[in-house]
Amino acid sequence: MSRKYQGLIVLNTKSLEGNVDDLVSAISKDFEAEGAKVEKVAQMGRRQFAYNARHLEAGHYVNYTFNGAPETITKIQSRLRLNDHVHLQHFVRVA
Fold it and tell me: How many domains are there within the chain?
């Protein structure tokens, strides 16, 4: 059963070599590699944090809208934990 989800990913671009767009597309490929079908990617830009979190003052916010099975979320979370540039991830089911 395929359901619609949104995932908010906060990227750590502090030590990034290259372009942010390349990192965003690489994460989209990670989603697809785990069985999700990405519908929309919305880059929300760089935003300041309310307080320093793990020695970061700001992060680049990206919102992914995708379809996938419920177990796909767990697989995506596990895969993104291994990526050093992913600072935070949050997933919500869209009605």
Answer: 1
Which one-letter DSSP state was computed for residue 27?
H
How close are the terminal C-alpha atoms of the chain, in Å?
14
How far apart CA 2 and CA 47 sit, in angstroms, is: 32
Closest CA to 35 of 77, 76, 87, 6: 76
CATH assignment at residue 45: 3.30.70.60
Tell me the pTM. 0.91
pLDDT tens sequence across 15-60: 888 899 999 999 999 999 999 999 999 999 999 999 988 789 999 9
Distance CA 29, CA 37 (A): 10
